[in-house]
Design brief:
Elements lengths: L18 E5 L4 H12 L3 E6 L2 H15 L3 E5 L5 H15 L4 E4 L14 H28 L4 E6 L3 H4 L5 H21 L4 E8 L5 H7 L4 H4 L14 H12 L10 E4 L3 H6 L10 H15 L1
Parallel strand pairs: 1-2, 1-4, 2-3, 4-5, 5-6, 6-7
The chain binds hexanoyl-coenzyme A and NADP nicotinamide-adenine-dinucleotide phosphate (NAP).
């Protein structure tokens, strides 16, 4: 029997009748979340720049789930491409009910080594791309008086910041601000906006760009996580499906962290003391108690 981390959580048909757009849906976490949405009965639109990758994924997904997938090339940096993608999705499925802003670009570098274009490339994909898709779908839902649902994938460094990925941190911080702002503004139109902040979930795209070469061994993410493991793709798929589903209908403007406690581990002043042995704690206790006497 599969473990809870590897099992689907929602009831059968929990997303039946919904059409969901997943940006960056051909690879990694977008592919994992989209596959689960399909298994729960949704129609799926997957988009990114590489049509060949999307078409291969769409074929795999349809075979695995029996659902319907539309693969569309769309660079989220370009608003006219986003409008065209929305139009094609409506033509194919009749309407669109939810948007998962998952597409991202990132690489690791000391900030002073970056060109201005390198910095703005990341801002354009992550922040402007999420803005473009949210705006295109929000305009459509409000015009048609339809409820809508926007789910943004950010990171935990959207709230803490992080060295060496500064363009991504700036952009994800902006996406988080957009999440809370739109939740307040568009709630009255029955458009919910939420975010997920994942910790480490190994994917080819992220690991090749953030931990190239032997960095993956030298900087093993699981050592930073109190639970001493990385995330399973099904775990984020379960959370995303819940937030996209009507079961989370009263959640609006929130960001849910799914990181095994990683960012809090880095934040607490004394959290690094996990290397203190039991003998050392005996010694420390003796010393601290003796100061009282
Ligand atoms: C410094 C770099 C660089 C690098 C590119 N550039 N790579 N600068 N270090 N490693 C510079 C280029 O020289 C150029 O600037 C500018 O960035 C744009 O580069 P292009 O290659 O023309 O951009 P483009 O083809 O649009 O590709 C975008 C990309 C690429 C972001 C650079 O990596 C990509 O396509 N990424 C998509 C997938 C991805 O990144 N997935 C990971 C998401 S992970 P100049 O000045 O020379 O013109 C994530 C997780 C976070 O977000 C948390 C994990 C735990
Ligand atoms: P990934 O597989 O590299 O996914 C990124 C996707 O974005 C790709 O499918 C890529 O497809 C697409 N994309 C990039 N630029 C685009 C553009 N201009 N227009 C449209 N699509 C574009 O990496 P991942 O790890 O699954 O990341 C998915 C999301 O999770 C991202 O938002 C990332 O920041 C977030 N995240 C991941 C982790 C992790 O540990 N993996 C942790 C925290 C947050 P094309 O190249 O075909 O365009």
């Amino acid at each position: 029997m599969p473990s809870p981390e590897e099992s689907g959580m929602l009831k059968e048909n929990a997303l039946k009748g919904k059409t969901i757009i997943v940006t960056g849906g051909g690879t990694g976490l977008g592919k994992a979340m989209g596959t689960y949405f399909l298994k729960l009965g949704a129609n799926l639109v997957i988009t990114s720049r590489k049509l060949d990758v999307l078409q291969k994924t769409a074929t795999e997904m349809e075979a695995e789930s029996g659902g319907k997938v539309l693969a569309l090339a769309c660079d989220v940096r370009n608003y006219s491409e986003v409008e065209n993608m929305r139009q094609k999705a409506i033509e194919r499925f009749g309407s669109v009910n939810a948007l998962l802003n998952n597409a991202a670009g990132n690489f690791i570098s000391p900030t002073e080594r970056l060109s201005a274009n390198a910095f703005s490339t990341i801002i354009d994909i992550v922040l402007k791309g999420s803005v473009n898709c949210s705006l295109a779908l929000g305009k459509y839902w409000i015009k048609e008086s339809m409820p809508g649902n926007i789910l943004n994938i950010v990171t935990t460094y959207a709230f803490t910041g992080s060295a060496y990925v500064v363009p991504s941190a700036c952009a994800k911080g902006g996406v988080l601000a957009m999440t809370r702002s739109l939740a307040a503004e568009w709630g009255r139109h029955k458009i919910r906006t939420n975010a997920i902040a994942p910790g480490p979930f190994p994917t080819k795209g992220a690991w090749e760009r953030l931990l190239p070469g032997d960095m993956a061994e030298k900087f093993d993410f699981k050592n930073r996580v109190p639970l001493k493991r990385v995330g399973e793709h099904q775990e984020i798929a379960n959370l995303a499906a819940y937030l996209i589903s009507d079961f989370s209908g009263y959640i609006n403007g929130d960001v849910i962290t799914i990181d095994g406690g990683e960012w809090l581990q880095g934040a607490g002043q004394f959290n690094g003391l996990e290397m203190v042995t039991s003998d050392m704690w005996d010694n420390i206790e003796q010393l601290t108690r003796s100061t009282k006497r």
